[in-house]
Amino acid sequence: MIAIIVGLIIALIIFVVVVGAIQQHKEKQEAEKRVKVAKQKAIIDESEELILNISNLPSSPNLVKILNRRSLKAAKAMQELMPTVKGIKNRIQELNSRLEAAEDLATNQTNEETFLLPDNEQQILTILQCIKKLRATLKSEQSKGNLDAQTFTKEDQRLDAMQLKINIESLIKRGTQAQNKEMLGSARQYFEKALQTLANHPLKTEYVAQKQSEISDQLSEITDSLKSTNAQDAAKKAKSEEDELDMLFQPKKKW
Question: CA 39 to CA 18: how far, in whole Å?
Fold first, then answer.
């Protein structure tokens, strides 16, 4: 009897340990699922934010399509991980509809709109941050195999050209404002920085060539103005020294 009782106790202990281990394993799996679901939700939220911010950029249905497809893929991954997530089925249906609409727009995309640089510095900063996030997202999608190389290159170069234009136009604007205020030294620094940025850019587009020519002309104008100003200052200084010498050597008055 004692042996039976001891055996039952040992069996009970083993059962409790096994059940505890199974429960811990389940809890660990659930925790890992929740982390993965949260990651997919973060992808959807980020894509939604980027789609919203794209409204500040020239029309790009192709980018909207890529981001909607990214959100749809994340939503399906959420459903696979946790089918009971509230509202996930409706979200997938909504994203499917949005993706179809984006694909239609991308197919019928017309020429790009002209991009106008905002006057507000904060708006410019927001746009630049959006472009950087978009480029990072495209790179991530391409590395995961969700975006073909040709589409990635086309969209990345488009965003790169937009980023370059914003930087150059901002520098030119600041340089022109400084030049109008006759702050020629500051103006020259802005224009030289813009020219160096264009020189370092790997793609030599028509825009790059045009701006290089325009900025070089402005720098020449500033150089001529500085030379003229320096000549005038030198003439004034020479005249002042001449007047001082005249005062020193003029005949003394007799009192």
Answer: 31
Look at residue 4 and tell me whether its pLDDT is greater than 90.
no
What distance in Å separates the CA atoms of residue 101 and residue 98, rounded to the nearest whole number? 5
Instruction: Measure the CA–CA gap between 215 and 213, rounded to whole angstroms.
Output: 6
What CA–CA distance (Å, rounded) separates 70 from 60?
A: 16
Q: Could you state, in order of their start, the residue ranges of all structural domains in the chain?
A: 14-109, 118-246
Q: Token pair of 222, please? A: 């500033």
Q: Tell me the pLDDT tens digit for each residue of 202-251.
A: 888 899 999 999 999 989 888 887 776 554 554 455 445 444 444 544 55
Instruction: Name all contacts of 189-197 with Cβ < 8 Å and 24+ positions apart.
Output: 191/215, 191/218, 191/219, 191/222, 192/219, 194/167, 194/168, 195/219, 197/164, 197/167, 197/168, 197/171
d(CA 59, CA 114): 10
Q: Give the tens place of pLDDT for each residue, 69-123.
A: 999 999 999 999 888 878 888 999 999 988 888 888 776 655 555 667 777 888 8
